[in-house]
């Protein structure tokens, strides 16, 4: 084998591997003699800071985390209030309150960006909006079609 790392792979690169040039022990080079990394730049205003693995800059969210949970919390509170109204023997009013809160959740999913809808974002935007709107319409139809108390 004449190749230092084995025969070249078919379709692979034909470039030669990097071999550092030997350095002379001149006084103007700041690195140690035989340093394969080459000359090191002197720190100064044009030298970028050294990259550290643990100090990666994370992108800051557009809104605080608690604010992105508000639409979901609003829908949950509306559904809970509707269930309480249904439990007090006002089926249609409670059902309409549930349907309205689900529809408001669909509007929030449609209008707000992905970073602000929190747990209302389950699937693609159009599918979430369609399913929540269909649920709100279905609950409204059931509220008006079902026999029972008129309140």
From TrEMBL:
The keyword Endoplasmic reticulum does not apply. This is DUF3017 domain-containing protein. InterPro entries: DUF3017. It holds the Pfam family DUF3017. Residues 1-60 are annotated as: Disordered. Residues 1-10, 38-48 have a biased composition (Pro residues). It comes from Actinoallomurus iriomotensis. Keywords: Membrane, Transmembrane, Transmembrane helix.
